[in-house]
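Title: Comparing notes on inverse folding

I've been comparing how different people in this forum approach sequence design from structure. To keep things fair, I'm posting one structure and asking everyone to reply with a full sequence. Here's the target:
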């Protein structure tokens, strides 16, 4: 039997079951290799201390500081009625700020003996606020003293690594576990080919692992970081390059539009000319469709840049060439809306086989989960006979029952709402792999596109069509300046008075049962600060109808309504019969009512930057200017307010997506987009490391073109297998 390679040794064997269990459950670490790749978040210098003044609220922190003062208090409480309750208050300082530590009950004895003024230690715990002062309650701590052998050894390095830790496992315990497994780093197989490594002056992998966990100087940390960033970027780009290479080998039917077919007839009846951007992107798509291997293209377009028009022209080209096109939308409201607007744009060209239909016409059908049986049967029949050239639907399209005559193109709207499995299931309905066009209105910075959607070619639509109006955005600080909120409702009345309509968006619906499970959930300090749940559609609609918007037609729209009711509400709003629509984010994507000019977003701080940008894109779709008011009760200095100010200050989605990424940790962005498997990026920062990613992509493409099976790069194969644990492999396979 083969010996298990050192890095694949389970942690259970090396560290013992209890520690291994905590590492697996809380940090996702299972093997020695996993632990070696759990890198320090930062380093403390023995002589310098963390700025206590900059501690983030509600986060698990590790600080190195000195005890300034320690006092034991006794008090009476229900558990200790005779004044026998004990509370130890310890003040620690790092020269820049002070922090209070508190210990209660039996927990006071040990720290009372050990935490004497002048003692230095590492402290770990969750930062909270008590009496307007920052404090750590019952922190774990490790004294920094050079008496026993082990601590001298452990803390001898001038730089103390601080690891991403959890309440169950403090940074120094992780550090000790890493010291135990560090000798195995010598056996790490290097994924980066030697020529590339030497050409770029990168240190070998075993050396990088030693230097990241046990640096002697800051230069060691730099060497290790630049090497480990390259690993991550390169291995990921090789995986994507292999994916693109494999796709290029797949067969597909080339689909070329006829010179006098459906597309030409459609273009003739357009009341406007396409923007330059639309023409350029259409050409890229038509060139891809004309080849004999499947198109894989990501179409990014600002809200309202006319993506649907570009996608529709691609669908018509495929129908011209004898195929069918399917458009997958994330919600029923959207599928119905796309269907309505496409049928409207096509006019008699969408009435194939009907009286009054044009000669080149085809049928456009919609397929959603809540359709009646008869309508559904007819739609399925139109698809299998090829009568319908275009189908628009929700994931109901993916069901086994749905069969196509000849599926040539799949258009996925709002990619981030769909699992890869869903995209793939639809693609498998073609006799040969169909072409794939993925659309998103969430602008993605170039590096993220290269990392997350690296298997797709990218087209960007960044011009707005003529006739679109600018949107003015303002933050309304409801707590500091209540009269601003009153003015917001006056503005809504003014817009309605001028013949326009408005949206009011809220974070939740309001008919949720008080779920005891949720009630027990830990609240963030921001929630604690305001002690109230997010505003709800049903409550807000009720208050507005009775109060500031009395006399106007106010309706509600949310995800738990019956699909027919949702559709009826949307139709009334689109027809101008409703003045104000109070909704959840169901209106975030694709809802198109040009007459709606104002939007008020309640509790705007509860939404992400790109979500706010998406929502805002629902107004200003006609010739009248749009207005978006971001209502918040967060105080001026909070990060939430800064986020809202940045949304109000620019309409450029790419700029906002950079801000969004800088504020979130990219792990979220990639983690979500990468099938939910834990993100492999631990060292690489997608925005900052743009150059490394671009260079790694080129190197990877060259290497894969020369050796697609990686026969000459066994180390790289091993690293790929580790990256593509099965879930991931499937993700990239399906791409």
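Reply #1:
Here's my take.
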């Amino acid at each position: 039997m083969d010996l298990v390679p050192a890095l694949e040794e389970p942690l259970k064997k090396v560290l013992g079951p209890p520690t291994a269990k905590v590492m697996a459950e809380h940090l996702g670490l299972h093997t020695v290799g996993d632990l070696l790749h759990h890198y320090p978040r930062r380093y403390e210098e023995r002589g310098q201390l963390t700025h206590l003044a900059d501690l983030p609220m509600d986060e698990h922190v590790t600080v190195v500081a000195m005890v300034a003062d320690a006092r034991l208090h006794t008090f009476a409480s229900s558990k200790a009625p005779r004044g026998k309750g004990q509370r130890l208050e310890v003040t620690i300082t790092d020269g820049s700020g002070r922090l209070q530590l508190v210990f209660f009950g039996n927990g006071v004895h040990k720290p009372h003996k050990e935490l004497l003024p002048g003692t230095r230690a590492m402290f770990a715990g969750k930062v909270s606020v008590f009496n307007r002062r920052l404090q750590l309650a019952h922190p774990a701590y490790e004294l920094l003293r050079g008496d026993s052998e082990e601590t001298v050894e452990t803390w001898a390095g001038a730089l103390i690594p601080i690891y991403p830790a959890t309440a169950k496992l403090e940074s120094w315990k992780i550090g000790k576990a890493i010291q135990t497994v560090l000798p195995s780093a010598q056996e790490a197989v290097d994924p980066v080919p030697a020529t590339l490594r030497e050409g770029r002056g990168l240190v070998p992998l075993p050396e990088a692992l030693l230097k990241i966990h046990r640096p002697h100087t800051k230069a060691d940390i730099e060497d290790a970081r630049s090497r480990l960033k390259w690993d991550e970027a390169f291995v990921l780009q090789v995986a994507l390059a292999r994916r693109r290479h494999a796709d290029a080998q797949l067969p597909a039917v080339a689909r070329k539009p006829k010179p006098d077919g459906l597309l030409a007839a459609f273009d003739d009846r357009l009341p406007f000319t396409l923007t330059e951007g639309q023409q350029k992107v259409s050409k890229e798509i038509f060139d891809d469709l004309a080849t004999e291997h499947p198109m894989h293209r990501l179409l990014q377009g600002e809200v309202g840049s006319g993506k649907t028009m570009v996608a529709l022209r691609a669908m018509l080209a495929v129908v011209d060439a004898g195929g069918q096109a399917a458009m997958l939308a994330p919600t029923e409201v959207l599928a119905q809306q796309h269907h309505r607007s496409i049928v409207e744009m096509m006019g008699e060209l969408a009435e194939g086989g009907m009286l009054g239909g044009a000669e080149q016409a085809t049928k456009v059908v919609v397929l959603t989960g809540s359709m009646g049986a008869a309508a559904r049967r007819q739609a399925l029949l139109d698809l299998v006979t090829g009568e319908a050239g275009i189908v628009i639907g929700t994931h109901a399209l993916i069901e086994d029952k749905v069969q196509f005559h000849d599926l040539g193109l799949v258009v996925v709207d709002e990619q981030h709402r769909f699992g890869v499995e869903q995209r793939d299931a639809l693609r498998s309905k073609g006799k040969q792999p169909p072409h794939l066009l993925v659309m998103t209105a969430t602008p993605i910075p170039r590096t993220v596109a290269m990392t997350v959607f690296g298997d797709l070619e990218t087209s960007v639509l960044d011009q707005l069509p003529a006739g679109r109006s600018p949107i003015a955005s303002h933050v309304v600080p409801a707590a500091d300046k209540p009269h601003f909120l009153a003015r917001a409702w006056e503005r809504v009345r003014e817009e309605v008075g001028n013949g326009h309509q408005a949206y009011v968006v809220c974070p939740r619906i309001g008919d949720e049962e008080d779920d005891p499970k949720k009630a027990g959930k830990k609240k963030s300090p921001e929630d604690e600060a305001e002690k109230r749940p997010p505003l709800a559609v049903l409550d807000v609609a009720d208050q507005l109808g009775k109060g500031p918007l009395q006399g106007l037609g106010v309706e509600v729209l949310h995800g738990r309504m019956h699909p027919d009711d949702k559709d009826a509400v949307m139709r009334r709003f689109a027809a101008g019969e409703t003045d104000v629509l109070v909704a959840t984010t169901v209106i975030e994507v694709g809802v198109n009512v040009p007459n709606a000019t104002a939007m008020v977003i309640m509790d705007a701080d509860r939404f992400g930057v790109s979500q706010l940008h998406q929502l805002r894109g629902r107004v200003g779709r006609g010739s009248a200017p749009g207005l978006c008011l971001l209502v918040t009760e967060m105080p001026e200095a909070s990060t939430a307010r800064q986020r809202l100010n940045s949304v109000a200050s620019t309409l450029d989605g790419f700029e906002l997506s950079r801000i969004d990424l800088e504020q979130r940790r990219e792990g979220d962005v990639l983690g979500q987009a990468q099938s939910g498997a834990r993100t492999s990026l631990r060292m690489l920062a997608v925005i900052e490391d743009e150059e490394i990613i671009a260079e790694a992509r080129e190197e990877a493409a060259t290497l894969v073109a020369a050796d697609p099976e990686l026969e000459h790069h066994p180390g790289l194969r091993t690293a790929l297998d580790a990256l593509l644990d099965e879930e991931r492999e499937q993700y990239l396979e399906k791409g």
